[in-house]
Amino acid sequence: MAPETDEAAASITSWLLRWKDGEADALARLVALVYAELRRLAAIFLSDERDNHTLQPTALVHELYVRLESSRPIDWQCRGQFLAVAARMMRNILVDHARKRAAARRGGVSIVRTGLPLGPHSDVEPADRTSTIDVILIDTALSRFGAQYPRQAEVVELRFFGGLTAEETVEAMSVNGHQVSLRTVERDWRFSKAWLQNELGRL
Exposure string (b/e) for 62-97, b if CB count within 10 Å is 16 or more? Predict the structure, then answer.
């Protein structure tokens, strides 16, 4: 994730609060501030798709914007929290899209794919990852994982789907009531990757 200045992060937080308070154009201003980051996340999700894929990064961000409009009641507090919610929504959009395509193929396998950092090179940038996995499979595995290990599943959401650093993950989780240390987040991340690697091998 590209680093932000304290001033930029403060501006994002300010617009989040103004949006929560009902200011009409606050969401548009907020999305403009984080558009590059949201589009980067969308591009990661669609990185292995053919050039004429029906769901392009810009369209994914647009659909996300529409869904975000209904999220004003959330007790917004920080940038990390916002990106985490946005990433989860993008995950849901992609899964919905993949399932519709699979149904249209009358049971065919979806080819919507995304890189998952589970192997020995899991700390490299998403653009450098060569292994991919079907988005429906990872969604299924994460759902099972979350039923057993909800905190660890949240770490996966924040770090992989949200693109947050370990430090930002600690901040975002504190907003959701999890008082965790940096060491705990790093440990949860290692455990999550090992569990998911095993689970995905059986799907």
Answer: ebbbeebeeeeeeebbbbbbbbbbbbebbbebbbeb
Are 78 and 142 spatial neighbours (Cβ–Cβ below 8 Å)? Answer: no
CA distance 35 to 135: 23
Question: The dihedral of CA 64, 69, 74, 77: what is its sign?
Answer: positive
**Alpha helices per DSSP H over 46-149:** 57-68, 79-104, 135-148
Which neighbouring-strand residues pair with 133? 114
pLDDT tens across 90-145, in order?
A: 788 878 877 877 676 655 444 444 444 543 334 434 333 334 457 788 888 899 99
Q: How far apart are CA 85 and CA 98, in angstroms?
A: 20
Whether residue 170 contacts residue 185, with contact meaning beta carbons closer than 8 Å, is answered with yes
Are the beta carbons of 13 and 33 closer than 8 angstroms? no
Distance CA 55, CA 65 (A): 15
Average model confidence (pLDDT) across the chain? 74
- How many CA within 13 A on the CB side of residue 61? 17
- Could you tell me the pTM of the whole model? 0.69
